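Worked example

This section walks through a single chain of length 224. The input is the sequence exactly as stored; nothing has been trimmed or padded.
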Amino acid sequence: MPEVIFAGPAGRLEGRYQPAKQKNAPIAIVLHPHPRFGGTMNNQIVYQLFYMFVERGFTTLRFNFRGIGRSQGEFDHGAGELSDAASALDWIQSLHPDSKETWVAGYSFGAWIGMQLLMRRPEIEGFFSVAPQPNTYDFSFLAPCPSSGLIIHGDKDRVAPPKDVQTLVDKLKTQKGIVITQKTMEGANHFFQDQTDQLMAECAEYLDRRLAGELSDPRPKRIR
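Given that input, the structure is written out below as tokens.
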């Protein structure tokens, strides 16, 4: 798993990158939790999501947002971090121009950034939104949400109360042409304490079903 440094809008960004053996393999990018609250690309959930994609033959990248680790710049309350994510996707796509499909996975703050990236990049086919915080961040930009994906959260989450996540899910489920899958994990808090293995099992099952052609609208998606 090579350590990589690539250009971002505010300077260099530090990442971990695992290319797939197949030139046209799908791409996955994994986004970490809030930089001001200890979030880094080495967060255990981010790390395990990374390897979930690697094990299924994806070309995969996780990276530190600006100001974290060896990434340059300073925290920018989301706007700069979205630009970081777009630059990261540009970088990995430049190395893999034959890839036709992209996925984005984000945890907590990273889920908010990931969903914004989804709106900007039509090549993103699927998403994982782990413990999103619609009570803290504005998700109204998802109008409409362009891709099918999984929203997974815990019923004991005090950071992002389940009722707020449910409101977001209900809104997205009214949209045509996509399939929003929701998993509410019993007993899980925002950090999935003692339940990381179950979280990853749920995510892996979803990804395997999507790769088998399930859980999404059958119509082809527009490609960049």
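What to look for: The two ends are 28 Å apart (CA to CA).
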